[in-house]
Specification:
Order of helices and strands: EHHHEHEEHEHEHHHEHHEHEHH
Number of helices: 14
CATH class: Alpha Beta
Strand order of the largest sheet: 4-5-6-7-8-9
Strand content: 5-15%
Radius of gyration: 19 Å
Number of strands: 9
CATH architecture: Alpha-Beta Barrel
């Protein structure tokens, strides 16, 4: 018997590209992916309909404005968010938005987050990797967390290319033959997981206890490592479950681009089903691949419903 269709399917790590930002950061994708990044209309809607996806929360692709000078980042992020807002207004039942933030100017980034949420109706923001070499836990960026808490919206921490020093030390021997190693195959995971660990250690989550962080790709491997991280930190004087408690209280994860049943079940056991949301990573991953995988996931219908829509509906007040 065919599996019943879920009540609603929400996908929330789904990327687009803004023409002005693209002119600054350059084109790295194939022509097919490029065409899908550029489209927030018929092509995207057709791909969603064919797979059975009802709503995408759209975010700019990496590295967005994170590696620009402050003045350029502020102007481009604002125009990109306005551009995305118009695209969402054309199909408000199918699209929502995450803001692009000009993190090279943290105060302006906090202000733009507020404008995007209160004036444009966006659901939070996505930040891609390091900001000109700085991790997001740096105290210069704490005003962004303060504002996100006040607005009651999450921040999605997305990977980007590793720091050049890391590339040179860890990956250069294989970068020519296996360039994807620096990106989705491994480099992205290390960079984003390190962002997550540093955010827990920094104290920003204690300073702003309403902070909520989203990590894609089933938590960038952190759920698998929670016990070991926590156990070793306990040996350095922290209370038992200090790290795990903060991670599980402040972080949500998505399935974007990581369609593994064993990995998913590990995440469910460590974090609970209420902290996991469905995502694809479109257009770098195809919608149909993600939806076909979900048919094989060994969870009950109620838990799949939470992943497909209920958890996101609660988090984003959809």
């Amino acid at each position: 018997m065919a599996e019943p269709r879920p009540r609603r399917v929400i996908a929330l790590e789904e990327h687009y590209s803004d023409p002005e930002i693209e002119a600054r950061i350059g084109v790295a994708e194939s022509s097919e992916v490029r065409a899908r990044l550029d489209d927030i209309g018929a092509l995207r809607l057709q791909a969603m309909d064919e797979a059975g996806i009802d709503l995408q929360i759209l975010s700019h692709r990496a590295p967005s404005t994170q590696r620009m000078d402050a003045e350029s980042a502020v102007a481009l992020a604002r125009r990109a968010n306005d551009w995305l807002h118009q695209a969402v207004l054309a199909h408000p039942d199918r699209f929502a938005g995450f803001a692009a933030l000009p993190t090279p100017d943290p105060k302006a980034a906090a202000d733009e987050l507020e404008r995007a949420v209160t004036k444009l109706g966006f659901k939070g923001a996505m930040v891609h990797g390091l900001t000109n070499g700085l991790f997001l836990d740096d105290k210069r960026f704490w005003p962004i967390f303060e504002r996100a808490q006040a607005l009651d919206v999450p921040l999605y921490i997305h990977p980007a290319m590793p720091h050049q020093a890391v590339v040179d030390s860890y990956y250069k021997d294989y970068a020519k033959d296996f360039p994807i190693l620096l990106r989705a195959a491994w480099g992205f995971t290390v960079e984003a997981a390190t962002q997550g660990i540093r955010l827990v250690l920094s104290g920003v989550l204690d300073a702003y206890p309403g902070t909520r962080i989203i990590l894609g790709h089933l938590g960038e491997s952190l759920p698998f490592s929670l016990w070991r991280i926590d156990d070793t930190l306990t040996g350095e004087g922290q209370p038992k479950d200090w790290f795990r408690d903060r991670f599980c209280r402040h972080f949500y994860i998505t399935t974007s681009g990581n369609f593994s049943n064993p990995a998913l079940l590990c995440c469910v056991m460590e974090m609970g089903i209420d902290r996991i949301m469905f995502s694809v990573d479109y257009p770098f991953v195809r919608n149909r691949q993600a939806m076909e995988w979900m048919k094989t996931v060994p969870l009950c219908a109620a838990d799949k419903e939470k992943m497909f829509c209920r958890n996101a509906e609660l988090l984003f007040r959809l």
